[in-house]
Write a structure and sequence with these properties.
single chain; nine-stranded mixed β-sheet; globular; 21 strands; TIM Barrel; Lyase, Ornithine Decarboxylase, Chain A, domain 1; eight-stranded parallel beta barrel; binds ligand LLP
Amino acid sequence: MTSKTLPLPKLSGFSERNGIWYAEEIPLIDLAKEYGTPLYVYSKKALTESYEAYDKACMDSKGKRRARIHYAMKANSNLAVIDLFKQLGAGFDLVSGGELARALAIGADPKSLVFAGVGKSAPEIAAALKAGVKCINVESIAELHKINRVASDLNLRAPISLRVNPDVDAQTHPYISTGLKGNKFGIAYHEVLKTYREASRLPQIDVVGIDCHIGSQITTTAPYLDALDKVLDLVEHLKREGIVIHHLDLGGGLGISYSNETPPDITEFTNTLLNHVTERGFGHLDVVLEPGRSLVGNAGVLLTTVEYLKPGVEKNFCIVDAAMTELMRPALYEAHHGIVPAQTKQTKSIVYDVVGPVCESGDWLGRDRQLAVEEGDLLAILSAGAYGFVMASNYNTRPKPAEIMVDGKDAFVIRRRESIQELYSTESVLPK
Ligand code: LLP
């Protein structure tokens, strides 16, 4: 058995000092003692720093804003996280009526909300129109007509963008690639102009923007520039036809380092895109960016306790109290997350598969990891701030974990642990 010893990502909110891992100023073992495991822990400092990196890069040298950040809350929609971003000046990218309700619950300005998603229902569209969102990103001609009908019933106007499928390969995991013509997302490139013409004829529709999102965990800028060029060609064409585009939404998707990936940093990435927009003569457009993972991914860890060490015939298993129910990414995408003991132990280091208690062989969190651990020890699963808690499930009737936000020496419960009774409190047996 050989270990896949990959480098750890660079983290700003979490660090190891003298063999002890901290969230900002609090040892992770203290948090686990106080709040139990499995436990999600986020660093306010790391969240703030990544937002500020985007925000700074959105300003030009004269202090004029070149772009706005609409945080894609699907990555982590905890109210405390989205409220922090709101306070820092973010708008939001939403993909459901539920996410719209969260944004409104924290008092987000409706004009800072864009509503995306490939299958919006009529009630969701109605809720977005009534709230007065900045824009609905439309993904098909059928959806365009549905929005027009819903707006007409409500006697409201619907501001829209069309989501362009630019047929660009984002070179990422096939499940999170969205800008290829074989993907379900967006309007096929060759049909976009025709659909804008149709949109401009519909009585309740106001064309306000154009949108594109090519995938997630993208680690190079090249596919973005290809997509951007294709979208700007469309804007030029539309202008000649008298259809005016006010904003350009470039989606999210910038990757993070889980171990040895080297994505461009936030500042470099944002500058490259925005400079390209200006160089092509579109500096007047209001640019929207929808980052999710790059804002939150490395600002969170999942803490888990070792339940059993189980030597096997071919593998040794480190069985922990977190599972695919808390962090689904390894099971779903074979994703790699760094795993470290929260406190260094002078014990024998062995190669383990780190697995959960769920009844599925796909329930693993890390494969072939060299770890010096004993039963009862605490492990931290790194880079779990994005698509971690939000993808958690109650499979095997497992309550969802608590979430904590650390700010310096202070820790705040931002979601309490679910109780088992809550999990079946909405169910009923048949009448007897
Ligand atoms: N905008 C749109 C329209 C999106 O569909 C997404 C993500 C984003 C923005 C934010 O992308 P980000 O900056 O976070 O890459 N569950 C997967 C990721 C799914 C991403 C879905 N769309 C994972 O765990 O890797």
